[in-house]
Specification:
This protein is of the alpha+beta class. It has 12 helices and 15 strands.
């Protein structure tokens, strides 16, 4: 039958394929589609490759029109990953046929809608595919780890890191694993706003996280670090298949001395091992501070790409390659001039513009 637009009758098959695929992430699940449509009101383009009524491959994406970054189909906006996923038993030759048909279909969409390009964010199942139509742009690196038993992993850590963890434990920090809306609103989100202002980055509105919670609750894990009953750090992770994936790690800089971020990662990895997960995905490494923190957890680093279908890659801009006002001046303004409540109000506009 070939490629067809998604319809609700395919929902169960779609999510089952995502969960069974090693590269499946929460952004491939249908709940993410509903969350983005409800918060940012983007028009989606979700496609399934059907054969005898069964999904062999799927593609999630959204039409995105930015004032600074142009008109693109993005898979997936507001995320680190995207692109096609395949059922595990689809042979390589068949995958090439499916990809070829997919690219022809997307070219038609781009022409009809007058869009510049298809942008796929580190599409892991397509990185090794060689075709003249696709062009890759290396941005930075991503980090991941095969999860080991805590006692084995502890011995591999640098002695300095073990001492940091002992110091954190001496402050009697308490780790709370929660999965309720009250914790998301009252503990995570205030720390998130504070962290994003410190980093000079526009925050998502609260409704974004509430939508994710509503549509993807079984996959969402919220870890809170409390110091003397006060939340001082938190992380959001996603459990899909055998992989756990951290997307947000936030903290109150006034309590860095108790090392809450280090303890949060240690407890998270211990939990993940005990729950039977195999892979820890810590996402892209965008700057030096991230690299230092992530490398001490013995993470593996590999190149991270955006992959494009377009006529001229030089004309395609993204927030990491653009020399626009957004990338040069906005972080400093966000840090120094905007009051915290105002960042929450304006963040939605800038996040939608950047699609990050």
């Amino acid at each position: 039958m070939g490629w067809t637009l998604f319809n609700d009758s395919l929902s169960l098959q779609w999510d089952n394929l995502v969960e069974s695929n090693l590269h499946g992430r929460f952004i491939h699940l249908l709940g993410f589609k509903k969350a983005i449509e409800g918060c940012y009101h983007l028009n989606s383009i979700y496609l399934a490759y059907l054969e005898k009524g069964e999904i062999l491959s799927l593609f999630p994406g959204f039409f995105h029109r930015g004032l600074f970054l142009g008109r693109k189909i993005i898979s997936q906006p507001f995320s680190e990953y995207g692109g096609l996923l395949f059922r595990s038993d689809v042979p390589h030759e068949k995958r090439l046929i499916i990809i070829d048909q997919f690219l022809k279909l997307i070219k038609n969409f781009l022409t009809e809608k007058n869009y510049l390009a298809l942008e796929m964010r580190h599409p892991q199942e397509m990185l090794g595919v060689k075709t003249e139509s696709l062009q890759a742009r290396k941005l930075f690196r991503r980090s991941w780890l095969e999860i080991e038993a805590p006692d084995i992993f502890w011995k591999k850590l640098d002695p300095k890191e073990r001492n940091i963890l002992r110091k954190a434990e001496s402050y009697k920090l308490k780790i709370e694993l929660a999965n309720n809306m009250e914790t998301l609103k009252e503990k995570f989100y205030p720390l998130y706003l504070r962290t994003m202002k410190r980093l000079g980055s526009p925050p998502h509105p609260l409704i974004y996280f509430l939508n994710l919670f509503h549509y993807l609750r079984p996959y969402l894990k919220i870890f809170i670090v409390n110091f003397k009953t006060r939340p001082v750090a938190a992380l959001i992770a996603w459990a899909v298949g055998v992989t756990v994936h951290i997307t947000d790690m936030v903290s109150d800089e006034r309590f860095f001395f108790v090392k809450p971020n280090d303890l949060a990662i240690w407890e998270f990895l211990s939990w993940a091992y005990n729950e039977g997960f195999k892979i820890f995905d810590f996402g892209p490494v965008r700057y030096r501070g991230q690299e230092i923190f992530k490398k001490k957890w013995l993470l593996k680093l590999e190149d991270y790409y955006y992959v494009y279908l377009c006529n001229d890659l030089n004309k395609v801009r993204n927030i990491f390659s653009s020399n626009s006002f957004l990338t040069r001046m906005a972080p400093s303004i966000w840090k120094s001039l905007l009051p915290l409540p105002m960042t929450a109000f304006l963040g939605k506009f800038f996040r939608r513009e950047m699609a990050l």
